[in-house]
Amino acid sequence: MTSPLNRQEIGVAQLNPDGTPAVVHLHRRIFIGPMPEKLVSQTEAHAHKHYHRGIFLGRSQADEVDSDGQSTSVSQIIKDHAFHHFMSEGGREEDWDEHEERGRSEELLRRWRESEWGAMWHRRHQRRHGELRELVPSRWVGGSFEVGHLLGVNVLDEPAMVYVPFQEEEPLLDVLRASSSSRTEKANAFANTKDTFVTAPSQTSHFSASPETARDATPSPAASNTGLPQSQRAFMKTPSTLSLRSPELEASVSQATTNTKSKDKGKKQVHYVEGVEGLPTLGPVSPTEVLGRTSQTVEATSNRMFVRICTTKAEDLNPHFDESMHRTTRGLQYQDWAEFVVAWRKDLIEIYEDYTSPLQEWTIGHKHLAYIIPLKSPRTRLSLYSFVDMTFCITCRAVRTYFNSKKTKWTINSDLEGTSVYVFKTKSRSRAYDWTWQLWRYLGGKIPKSIDIRNPRLGIKVAFELPCLELIDSDTAVKMLSRRNIIALCMKSLKPVPGWDSFVEHERQKGRALQLAWRSETHVDWVWNDRNADGEQREWSALCGLAFKNSPQAPVLELRVAQHYPNCLYLKNGTLLVQPPAIEGYVERIRSNTQTKQSAYLVSHNGNLFTLSPQQAQPPSPPGSALMSGSMEEYKQTIMNVEIKRGIYQIMHAHGVCDLRNVVAVRRAFQVTGDKPYLRTKRSFELLLNTGRVVRFEVHSRRVANEWVERLRSLVVYWKQRHRVNAKDEIDLAQARHPRVTPQIRVCDEPEVPPEKPDLSVPYPALDTLFNWCVIDGCRPIIKEGKLYMRKGLRGQYQLAQLFLVDGHLISFRIAPHNSLHGVMKKVNLIDAYVFSGYLAALTLPKGQYRPNAPIVARRYEDGLEADDRDEDMLFVICYRKHAAAITPRPTITPVPDSTTNHDQGGSHRIPPLSEKHKHLVCKTRSKLERDGWCSALNYEIEKLTRKQKEREEKLRQTGNLRKLD
User: Fold this and answer.
1) d(Cα 694, Cα 710) in Å, to the nearest integer?
2) Rounded Cα–Cα distance for residues 475 and 246 (Å)
């Protein structure tokens, strides 16, 4: 029979009919070498102590069939594994019977007893009961194993683990008929067409908003159930909300073929009937009445924000003030970034700051009112400043406020010349969407009758017609405009399109789903936050991008494939290269100068080799150590969660890292070192780096050394190719905005053809890699990693560093040419952090460091990446407050008590005042696309932090009183 280690390719190398892996979103991991006996003893003692809570497969067969009711669970688990083992070897479900089940179960038990770890547990059982005596107990036990491998089957390698959400979900309103346009040619399944399909209204279908047909959609794993606090519900019910009426609705979504030659020829449209008769008039307040409310009926909302204020004497400023307009506007007087409390009350946006005197706020009773923005002024304009950072801008006439001590009230002077420009940056990206949506609706923004939803992979478009909101009750409107219902409607309406079914099936086989995303040029922003802190639906979560429809670079709504970070690639000769499993294990590093040994733990993550102290190693649970008595699905999910947390724990405690791209060769040691030269050389291996340095490790045996060499070589080959492919895709994506830095040479002498106009609608592979779904889903320990130049503070020298974004922390390792391993440099907790980039980041630098008129220099890097972006386009700044790193407890299926575990949340409960200074971390990337990828990942991670700590965010918003309204 095949041993577990020889079966590592099963499930990963299995191919679909098109040659791609059947299940590609798997993160395999192999522990190499034996494990310390002390750790195994602790695991065994804990499992025996908590015998009633689970099943311990390390016992003998007699103990497994105990009268404690555990034999039934063990038998059922073995049967489940026997069935999965039968299916993994190509068996058919109809051939499964009792005889096959009994034979497979006995075979699995026999293989377990004969395996290395099964025999080890049996010997320990005999020694514990006095049946076997060992004169000298071994310090190391067991051998190599694959994480998740149990009874001959890897539980993480089963098709049930592939999650494809709501691909077959029926929409709230059914699409009756689907017909394509009058095209005569059939589209290929993966052709890059640019057709737009239209369906006209024809007939109706009735439905009632019953729990069966209009039930709430279950949030996806990526969705968060936190967000806006209880005190800010008033903000969710401003005149721009969807407060609608009528508990019933008659609607239709119909399709018909149009043969006319109008400009709408070939469009597919999802249409809701607006004429509904016989609807009851009682119920919630109608939108007409809501839109007619006065400002006094709208309660207040407030948030802490980073605000940058500019003033100019000009009064004819462009209403669409954005980053590009900011670069060319003259005569602006700037103020530095500062954190304020921004409150929206009545018809004003009030901006508060701390008083210079600590007792002044206590005496007056509220914070200092620094600025006021009149929303009803005709000169007040809202615009999108930067889609990458989700910073929005408000321009208005200059207003000055001062406190009249005699009348004990604030006086507002609006008879001033000039224009004030306010740039707002929130910590949470969803809060920025909420503010811009509410302000846009309050300032007169109109929801269009329809919205176009594109699918870039097939180049088709659906015109989604929004229903008449005045004839729909609020609950029905929420369900209609929800992310899940819009996706279901699009999939249903596109089903008749040639090639659509094959496209969906192709993605389904890879375990992928379709999601909505707003895209502006080469930046993708996923729609994934559906609910607020109270679990209530954010009605505009899928439509909030409409607030920027008048922006010069207005985003478009797309139905994209939510692709995880790829773990396979094709070489130039067409060979499929699958990502090898990650590895980890105990080693001893041999210093090149002193020949002394240092115990260490090596672990690989994303093409990087981390070194840890053995005390902080957190190795995986050995095979057979523990198995929860619940269902196998719960056990598999537990293993996946533990592996993610275990990886986070290891990276947070790592003291060195080596990029596998810097490894020139992995080889067995061939030089004599110290005592017993022959034996030590045979069980040692070396890493030859591109700097000429050699890092040598010694392991337990020669067999273990051979396994380290073979697996490290596979990882080095794959990750070097992975980065080359990523660089090539990024060059192709950059070509969508401007010509290539190095023109491609033609093979034959052909006449020069002028370059084609950039087409941003093409489905570039680099977009799927830069903005992958792993960043949102959190299915990998490392959210984002890469090499860039950074410096601590606004002054000083830039240092080349390797950054890792892990669980709300930014960990940097300094790259020094004289060091074999990059040492850890800094850990930044992103709890109170703000991220901004581009021109705003350049203005943050001290005077003289930013040269806007400097010539653009083209650059080419060792992995083939080419870029010629401006300096400010490669710059981003992180403003943060100092918090200790939040170290989570040691994650394991069978936790071992550890007195050194840090349960402190890194000072996250401390509420800093507004006037507390922020620290700065200035980072420079190699290209604008890399910067966008970093900004996107950082903003997503900060968003998750604010939603995890909703109580703290609530305290932040409630800290400090506002002035009393007149």
Assistant:
1) 18
2) 9
Spans of the chain below 70 pLDDT:
1-25, 47-77, 134-137, 151-153, 157-300, 402-415, 469-471, 474, 532-536, 626-632, 671-680, 745-761, 888-908, 966
Q: What are the backbone angles phi and psi of residue 189, rounded to the nearest 5°? A: -60, -30
**Residue 481: its pLDDT value, please?**
83
Which one-letter amino acid corresponds to residue 603?
Answer: V
Can you read off the two tokens belonging to residue 553? 């670079």
CB 583 within 8 A of CB 699: no
Q: 98-114 and 70-88 are packed helices; what angle lies between their axes, rounded to 10 degrees?
A: 100
From CA 419, how far away is CA 413, in angstroms rounded? Answer: 14
Measured N-to-C along each axis, helices 702-734 and 928-948 cross at an angle, to the nearest 10 degrees, of 110
Q: Which CATH architecture has domain 295-442?
A: Roll (2.30)
User: Which pLDDT value is given to residue 241?
Assistant: 35
- DSSP strands (E only) in 432-512: 450-455, 460-465
The counts of H helices and E strands in the chain are: 21, 45
Angle at 938 between CA 933 and CA 942, to 5 degrees: 155
The class that CATH gives domain 781-957 is: mainly beta
Q: Is 183 left (phi over 0), alpha (psi -120 to 50) or beta?
A: beta
| Amino acid symbol at 648 | I
Among 768, 738, 770, residue whose Cα is nearest residue 756: 738
CATH 3.40.50.720 fits 566-618+653-742+757-771, yes or no: no
| φ/ψ of residue 834, rounded to 5 | -125, 140
CA distance 599 to 611: 10
Distance CA 487, CA 590 (A): 57
Whole-number pLDDT of residue 625: 73
- Pairing type for strands 866-867 and 859-860 reads antiparallel
- What pLDDT does 735 receive? 78
Residues 6 or more apart from 104 whose CB is under 8 A from it? 82, 83, 85, 86
* Other Cβ atoms within 10 Å of 52 Cβ, number: 9
Residue 592 CB partners (closer than 8 Å, separation 6+): 693, 694, 696
Distance CA 479, CA 24 (A): 33
Instruction: Identify the burial level of 205 via C-beta atoms within 10 angstroms of its C-beta, where 0-12 means exposed, 13-18 middle and 19 or more buried.
Output: middle
CA angle at 432 for the pair 426 and 436, rounded to the nearest 5°: 135
Beta strands in 563-693 (DSSP E): 568-570, 576-578, 582-590, 597-605, 608-612, 627-628, 656-659, 663-668, 684-689
CA distances from 801 to 33, 805, 824, 872 (A): 32, 13, 10, 19
**Residues whose CB falls within 8 Å of the CB of residue 56, separated by 6 or more in sequence, listed in order:** 44, 47, 48, 624, 625, 626, 627
Rounded Cα distance, 491 and 874, in Å: 38
How do the domains of the chain map onto residue ranges? Answer: 1-162, 195-293+446-562, 295-442, 566-618+653-742+757-771, 781-957
**CB 58, CB 906: distance < 8 Å:** no
With 0-12 / 13-18 / 19 or more C-beta atoms within 10 angstroms meaning exposed / middle / buried, residue 703 is middle
Tokens of 16: 């679909």
Q: How large is the greatest C-alpha to C-alpha distance in the chain, in angstroms? A: 97
Same fold, 295-442 and 781-957: yes
Q: Which of 394, 395, 399 is nearest to 415 (CA)?
A: 399
- H-helix or E-strand spanning residue 806: strand 799-806
Global model pTM greater than 0.85: no
Q: For strand 582-590 and strand 29-31, is the pairing parallel, antiparallel, or unpaired? A: parallel
The answer to whether residues 846 and 795 touch, using CB atoms and an 8 Å cutoff, is: yes
Cα separation, 774 vs 523, in Å, equals 16
